[in-house]
Design a protein that fits this description.
The structure holds two protein chains of two kinds.
Chain A lengths: L2 H26 L3 H6 L4 H16 L3
Chain B lengths: L2 H68 L3 H28 L3 H30 L4 H8 L4 H74 L14 H24 L6
Helix pairs in contact in B: 1-2, 1-5, 2-3, 3-4, 3-5, 5-6
Classes of the chains: A mainly alpha, B mainly alpha.
Chain lengths: ~60, ~270
Amino acid sequence: MAAKLLDCYARVSSEFGLTGRIKLAMLTKISSEKAASEADSEENIMMFEQAVIQIRAAPR
Amino acid sequence: MSIATKLGLFLAGVIVIFSALAVAMLAQLRSVALGYDALLNTQVRQMQAARVVQVTFKKQVQEWKDILLRGYNPDDLAKYTGQFHNREAEVHAGAQALAGTVDDANARKLLTQFLAAHQVMSEKYQLAYEAYVAGQSDFKAADKMVRGQDRAPTDLFDQVVQALDGRVTASVEAQRAATARNRNLVMSGCGGLLAVFGLLGWLTVRSILRRLVGLREVSDRLSRGDLEGLVVNISGHDEIGEFGESMKGVHAAFAELIKIASSPAPLG
């Protein structure tokens, strides 16, 4: 169970709504459904955190 | 490596091959020209000099016959005697010069023998000439003294010409064989390189087309919203690989959209 990856989805969803989720999926290339079955590896967490930073940095 | 780099390298490789082929052919042409120049400046020139000496020797014998035939006239005697001695000197000088330049041992040996035989013949002709003048133009007696004396030097010089002619023929044949060998070497080398580049080009094009077909299939399924079991597996460190990575993002976004549409409740 990739709790940390799903946590990223939850954060962008609360901050940016559906657009944020789609952007996160686009940037990480991993949908939330797939993220649920992925490992919370260091590499995956770093990729998701980078994507969250990128979404936050982008103009709304 | 990007497709542009691959195509650029392929084009550069083909240009290098054809440039190398052109340079090799020019070098081959130069080598052939130099080889024939050397042949013309040595062996063919010696051959021509030998022919000149051969003809001059025949003229010398002809002058002797003119002495015998027309020597009863003092003016003709003086004229043909002068011409006979001139030819004799020319033959001697020509054969000596040739012996100094010819590098074929057999031809040089034959020339030495010819010079000795020619010297003996000249001495006998001189005695016959003196007998002819003393005998008041008795050509029969003079002719009897030197009859057949020109045979030995004639045969010897014919052998000299034959030896030199054989060398020229052999050299031309060797030159022709070397030219054919070099040409075959250049052609097979360039042909091999072209085959290698052709194979590399074919493999590159096949790889590009195979991955483009994969991308088209992914694109078709995304356009139909058919994401069930869809895996975007387009690898490579080129433009197609990058496009495949983008398609993975699009695929994930589509999947997320479908999930949102089917279950609108927010996560967390």
